[in-house]
Amino acid sequence: MTVQHPPAAFLDGFVQVLADAATTGRRLTREERATRRELGARAAASGLGWRVLVREHLAASRGAWPAAASPDHVLSVVEQALDAFAEGYESAQRLVIRQEEAARREFIDDLLHGRGDSGHLAARAERFGLRLSRDHAVAVAEGPVPYDETDSVPRQVQDALFTHFESRRLLLTTKDGRMVCIAPGDQGDVLTRFAKQAHAATEGGQVALGRPRSGAVGIGHSYQEALNALDVAHRMGFDDPLLRAADLLVFPVLARDRPALVDLVRETLSPLEQARGGAQPLLDTLNKYFDAGCVAAETARRLSLSVRALTYRLERVHTLTGVDPTEPEQRYMLQTAVIGARLLDWPSRAL
């Protein structure tokens, strides 16, 4: 705990320096300036404000004004003393800011990755505006380039959010080039506004929302859900500006048993590699067909094909795989395999 000293405690020796230097008109010595810098650093560490300290220096100068000294000499000494004092004060403040930022980054890393004792994390969280006794959800925004907290885009999003939600308990930061917002789970309006601001500031970036979770560990889980949602969007080609992890739960389920998913894709779709041009054209056709709700006319429009040409491609899939994509009873396995192929980035990557 910082011990609060009276302002006068940081003027030690100032009156003596003023009387001697102002009377003779000399400049402050190196040792005298060093003493002023040290006192300035101690004053900053004590938590005293700069205005109070300047006022105290001016009051002391007025009270101990050497009668035999010229005003120019007195003001010159005061200027030199305050300049050295300010140098020490500002240097100490920069150090405190760096230490605070290091503590904040360490806390955020521990929180998002579930490291450390929950009780200790909860105590540290209060310092940064979070109450871990409540449910929290995490939103992660990803733009075209990586960001850190010194960039204009995160600052723009932060200013907009805190202007609107000044009294809310939330935390904004950057992590691995993405913007991260942590907010109470029952305040969905905060994360929704963060998503809108981030999408606009990044000129079309994507934002993923994890589900509300309880405690410090829950925040880490919500963060991982948001990251997984972004990963799924990349693999599946989703371009929605807002992704909700709750709406994408089927994809982590499919990807959780990778060997089984690989077997499904290999057994169901590998025959497509026998087609002219390889598997990709027919796989793209199936993707568009399923995305269009299995409506042939809409699929043909999206692919810039005639319905007849689309029908031929679907028949070719049936011939090669033995599975008819137009039959509801057979469609489920084929559609699941197609989703698996996108998650596994097949056929670009070998199974």
Could you explain the architecture of this structure?
- The protein is of the alpha+beta class.
- Helix content is 61%, strand content 8%.
- It contains 14 helices and six strands.
- Strands 1, 2, 3, 4, 5 and 6 form a six-stranded mixed sheet that branches.
- The two termini are 59 Å apart.
Short description:
Helices cover 61% and strands 8% of the residues.
Give the topology.
Layout: H1 14-24, H2 30-46, H3 50-63, H4 71-112, H5 118-127, E1 135-142, H6 152-164, E2 171-175, E3 178-184, H7 188-201, E4 206-209, E5 213-214, H8 215-236, E6 242-244, H9 250-256, H10 258-269, H11 280-291, H12 296-303, H13 307-321, H14 328-344
Parallel strand pairs: 4-6
Antiparallel strand pairs: 1-3, 1-4, 1-5, 2-3
Helix pairs in contact: 1-4, 2-4, 3-4, 6-7, 10-14, 11-12, 12-13
What descriptors fit this protein?
61% helix, 14 helices, 351 residues, alpha+beta, 6-stranded mixed beta sheet
Rg from C-alpha positions? 32 Å
- Series of H and E elements: HHHHHEHEEHEEHEHHHHHH
Helix content: 55-70%
Question: Total strand count, please?
Answer: 6
Distance between the termini: 59 Å
Number of discrete helical segments = 14
Structural class by helix and strand composition:
alpha+beta
